[in-house]
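FORM 7B: Structural annotation worksheet

SECTION A. Query
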Amino acid sequence: MTAAIRLLRGLAYASLPAEVVLLACLVAGVRIPAPAVAAAELACLLLLVVSGAVFLRLRRNGLSAREALGELVPTPVRRLVGHELRLMASLALWVARRRHGIRAGDMAFGHARDQAALMYGFAFVCLVETVGMSYLLADWPVVHAIVLVLDVYSGVLFVLGVHAASVTRPHVLTADTLRLRKAAHLDLRIPLDRIATVRHELLFSHEKTEGELDLAVASQTSLTIELTEPVDAPRFLGGPRPVRIVRCHADDARALHRALTRAVADA
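SECTION B. Predicted structure
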């Protein structure tokens, strides 16, 4: 089964750029024989069918749906797709005025306030750029439609999604864990019994140092947490990153400092 999965992954890596090239040729008006287009689409359909069959085989072998998907799809791809889905889900939560990952008895601490003006300004610039490109490409309908979709998603929706994720995914303090989050791409859980010291410390410059993690908001952190032993804060594409010092920011950093200090003392 491992050899089959490796073959499927190789075919998937080869088919994706081939599809992109084919789409670019069609948009550019290059004449491609109909049988060639049909063969390309049939190959992609066949790849999906075979992948589905392997997925079902893995499920019958006792793997959960998540584990089976993990066997078929490389970790970087899963994390990229998961990040995009979390951004879109955060937009829905933001509109509904709900927050993620907060249970009864938990204490939530927001951390998006100081970046709001920057994110709204960036979203406005992206919107202006989208309107400008739409006007410039009005005489090329196909290119206009493709660029419009890309601009709306990768510009306006993505920027708003990042801010929505920051708003709807606050830091959370539970009875035994501190959960620190940054937008939709980092969710770090620190057991309270691993926290050695907590300091309220306002910093605006952060040099990248091995073993340290800076969750800056608007280029600032206001809380420094030192651990008795490292915790793993996976990188964006899944690589391990053990850290013993974590710096984060909260809208009310002093309240988080007081609550965390009491929780650590009681743990």
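SECTION C. Observations
Residues 141-168 form the longest helix (28 residues). The radius of gyration is 23 Å.

SECTION D. Sign-off
Analyst initials: ____
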